[in-house]
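Input record (one chain):
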Amino acid sequence: MRTYLIDEDKNEVIVDLTRTKVHSSELVEFDFSTIEDNELKDKKTIFVRQLCGQYFVSEDNKRWSKVSRQDLPSRMLNIDRVFNVYRGYKPSGLSGGNEGELLTQMPGKIVKIMTSVGETVEAGQTLIILEAMKMENEIKCGVNGVVKEIHVSEGDALDQGVLMIEIEAT
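The corresponding structure, as predicted from the sequence alone:
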């Protein structure tokens, strides 16, 4: 699943969780990759262990570091920055467009449009399924409003930064 981590300055880290393996009720292994500028930047495996209500993380399952308490699922702390966490989508207002605009974050193909012009939509509602990097991504609405214009059709191949839908906020 794709996760967007965005700080107050709108800097972002994109993380794709590719595998989860549960070793025990106290130990879980995760494979993930980070993406920057639509390019795979880093692939890692990490281990997370819970002991006495505290969480610890390791890259080799031998040396462990304590993880600070997190306010998941909405916020995450990383040394000197606090990130807002968005699982599976990034609100349109954070994507370089205006608040009521849905822009493509990466090249992809429109698989399904799940709304129509004039329809009332809510923040978090899935409006489009976009296939990108061999994964189907749900493109969700970032605001409550009414769909003003749809600029794409099912089957369209899109580049990054294309305006797909305009929403008039209510």
